[in-house]
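A reminder from the course coordinator: this example appears on the midterm review sheet, so study it carefully.

Given structure:
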């Protein structure tokens, strides 16, 4: 595998701290325990897929909590009015201003929605926990389809990939071997998944943050939005690599532009903390449009305090419910209920 630092896509090579503390991603570990239990129980049941859920489920607990400063609203509204007034004068922009403007145009563009599940042709859920990456063919399938297929199969039959009909791996080793083959085939999602196995030391792998960073960076280099978000968390916490706000923002922006709703929400929180509430709400509206409930809640709060206009709120809530409807199905509901009952 290529040397780790040749894969870094940030402006500088990160300085990795060793030894790395075990407290990295504590919340993720809690999810991991559940995931591991789930995985083990799957292995004892021949009729249930042995592949794990897409590891993005381990990440969303790291999204921040927005805290809107209501007292700041009126002063910021004034700033926005002044800014738009100065724009109307059509003052010539300096080159850096123009570059920033062009970048913002890209940053605040509504990203393309998730692709469809290749089995049911419904938009894949934004919550990674509701999707499963197939280590055989690399397809991302919704859990609704995976579970419906498992339930329909005979008890004696081992799970076969709904897409390519390959039998599920019978052990951790086989699962990891398949995942490594997918990585060699440049499967960005497999890189991200394997990186997450390494950071948590799961599926028989020894915990190795060095490998995680290598895989996350390689995946991000190929444009994987989950990897960008995961890297932003590494630079935010400063526990796996040296803390670096610039690189955190860099990966958040690329993740958000790629359609990661958690990255977009965190960008909004960072803007809110910096006092840029107009930018914060723009981010939250975009991720709410994609069906992200945490962002929708923030937009609703913005509307209640008078920062978000009635028109913007109406548009956002309409887009939010449309997205939810596009991602909903009975099979998916049943899969989510089964997942919940297993956790209890
Ligand atoms: Zn499906
Ligand atoms: Zn397959």
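Designed residues:
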């Amino acid at each position: 595998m290529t040397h780790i630092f040749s894969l870094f896509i940030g402006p500088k090579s990160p300085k990795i701290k060793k030894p790395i503390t075990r407290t990295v991603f504590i919340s993720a570990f809690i999810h991991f325990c559940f995931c591991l239990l789930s995985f083990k129980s799957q292995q004892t049941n021949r009729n249930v897929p042995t592949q794990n859920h897409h590891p993005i489920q381990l990440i969303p607990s790291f999204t921040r909590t927005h805290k809107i400063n209501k007292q700041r609203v009126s002063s910021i509204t004034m700033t926005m009015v002044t800014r738009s007034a100065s724009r109307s004068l059509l003052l010539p922009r300096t080159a850096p201003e123009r570059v920033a403007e062009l970048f913002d145009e890209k940053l605040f563009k509504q990203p393309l929605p998730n692709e469809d599940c290749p089995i049911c042709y419904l938009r894949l859920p934004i919550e990674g926990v509701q999707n499963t990456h197939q280590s055989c063919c690399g397809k991302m399938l919704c859990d609704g389809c995976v579970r419906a297929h498992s339930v329909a199969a005979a008890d004696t039959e081992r799970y076969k990939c709904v897409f390519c009909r390959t039998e599920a791996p019978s052990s951790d080793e086989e699962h990891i071997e398949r995942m490594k083959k997918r990585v060699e085939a440049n499967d960005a999602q497999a890189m991200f998944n394997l990186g997450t196995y390494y950071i948590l030391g799961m599926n028989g792998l020894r915990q190795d943050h060095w490998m995680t960073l290598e895989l996350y960076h390689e995946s991000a280099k190929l444009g994987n939005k989950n990897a960008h978000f995961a890297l932003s968390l590494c630079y935010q916490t400063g526990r796996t690599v040296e803390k670096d706000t610039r690189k955190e923002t860099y990966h958040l922006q690329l993740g958000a532009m790629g359609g990661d709703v958690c990255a977009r929400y965190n960008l909004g929180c960072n803007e809110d903390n910096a006092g840029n509430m107009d930018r914060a709400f723009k981010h939250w509206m975009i991720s709410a449009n994609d069906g992200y409930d945490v962002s929708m809640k923030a937009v609703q709060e913005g509307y209640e305090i008078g920062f978000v206009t009635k028109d913007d709120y109406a548009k956002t809530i309409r887009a939010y419910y449309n997205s939810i409807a596009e991602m909903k199905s009975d099979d998916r509901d049943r899969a989510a209920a089964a997942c919940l009952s297993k956790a209890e």
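The first strand starts at residue 131 and ends at 133. Confidence is low (pLDDT under 50) at residues 1-62, 74-86.
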